[in-house]
Give the backbone structure.
Amino acid sequence: MHFLILTLVISISSFFQTPKKAERPLANASSIVVESTDGGKTWHDLSAGLPEKLSPYCIYADDRELLLGYERGLFRLSKSDQSQVWVKDPLVRDNITGIYPGKTGPFLRNLEKGFMQEIAHSGMWLPIYDNMVSEAVITVLETADGSILVGNAGGLYRSADSGKSWKNVYAKDMVTSITEKGNIIIAATFDGVLVSTDHGVHWKLALAEQGPIRHTTYIDGQFVAICSGKAQNDQGMGNEVDTENSVRVSRDGKTWKRMDENLAPKRFIFDTTNSQSVRSIRDIEKAGNYLFCSLSAGIYRSADHGKSWELVLAAPGDMLYEMTVSGKAIYAIKVINGC
């Protein structure tokens, strides 16, 4: 009798227990999305629910969910979903090439149609800033003072009235990335880094000698810029060839120094077009106590602010990893080198 009662109690208790999160397989060469929650020590496949041959363009993470953009729309992964399975967003069918944080919800970018923004995590997406100029949109930032900055093929545009009207504040070159911290805003262009200290009204150029800027961000109290480096002539023949790219850091946006010297011996790929070794740094992020840098060889980790690095995830073939971070978790997708 006592045995039957004990068995019944155990059964009822088990029924009401919170189900455990499914174990995720370790990452392999075919993994579309990978995740690490232990500082890059181990990586797990987070691709359940995605088409087998999906080629994602971008990934975004916040405290609620992950978003994955590709040529036919958007996949979503809720962090509260114990099954950890991606679900196709039925309302997004356009080519999504960029996802950016917004004050009321993330922005989606389609190069031809512009931006969409979600209404307060409702699953409803609406076109926004559709009066923007016709050039392909590339990046967007809602600044601390309430203005909006949009970078595109025509330069940098600013709106002080929630997108009703726009002013072209920089028109010399394409703007691909915008970062703000405190009273300083920096933007990436093919000419170098633009710097503004008056909410984006006026801009000055820095790092012009480092060639096109691929990406900007803010990490560990410093602005970070991934520089492409200027092309060099090959032995005076007039043929331009690629040179190494680099990571530069600055506290004020004006004075920059290099921080990737110890990555140099480990980041070479072979470019069959030029028959030479070229260096490729794709992305840089901070998760927990570690700095992560995506190179042609894979993802490297540093525990000492870039003084030393170790490879924690090798990149397959001609692919590089693009990363995003939420809390201590870091997520990565494979993209084709050069895209």
Summary: The longest helix spans residues 2-16.
